[in-house]
Amino acid sequence: MTAPAFPLPDPGEPLTGGFWRAAARDRLAFPLCGACDRFCWYPEPGCPGCGGSDLVWTSVEPAGTLFSWSVVHHAFLPAFADQVPFVAAVVTIDGAPGVRLVTRLIDARPCDLAVGARVRARFVPLRFSTVAGEVRAPFFRPDPRRIP
Known about the structure:
Elements: H1 17-24, E1 28-33, E2 55-60, E3 63-72, E4 86-93, E5 100-105, E6 118-128, E7 131-142
Antiparallel strand pairs: 1-2, 3-4, 3-6, 4-5, 6-7
């Protein structure tokens, strides 16, 4: 059985490219609907709230709250074999109401984590030993400036 291909995210992709282009500049951005002022994540061609199509990529403060996490011990694709274990996390983003971002948590021991902990993005190169190239991605880490 052949392992599935694992491409890097494409900054030119119409729906998610704005996220990756912002991350390349160390910014966190999400589509905001111009009609109803709602953030739309995960990106869709139209706003899931009002159906509007006037979506603008909007930068927000790269900070939030830890909503959930899990320690990944088994590489689900060969590209991740040299990265386990790692902490997969869901972060509620402060400046984007309704947005929960699936990300990776770094610089923290799982035994020290707590729901509601304050976290902040650090933009790091996303690389895989099985894939050429890299993109920058927002990984989150505990925010020492803010105590939950």
